[in-house]
């Protein structure tokens, strides 16, 4: 059993990881941090530098957590990557960030959060991210 968390660089990602770390501590399970880019897009703003992922892993391990970081650079979608990681690791929880989007934004861009919420075989915890971040 694990907790799986989606990570993007910046404050949003740090808030999601903070929530995921709390859940992993309470549940006494490993934390799997997943960072994803779509279709080999190495310039994707959501793709974290490997040094950042390594530093994140070290910080979480210093807190006493067992942590694995994964980076998918050839993913079809971030949602599928998270759902796949959850299935592979037998996750009991997936942690994602949620932000308010307009109806048009959801229609044009799809919704990673919605796909994870509806497609995950385990519980999903949404960390509310304000729109001004």
Automatic annotation (TrEMBL):
SUPFAM superfamilies: Adenine nucleotide alpha hydrolases-like. Transmembrane segments: none annotated. InterPro entries: Rossmann-like_a/b/a_fold, Universal_stress_UspA, UspA. Residues 9-126 form the UspA domain. It comes from the Bacteria. Pfam families: Usp (PF00582). Belongs to the universal stress protein A family. This is Universal stress protein.
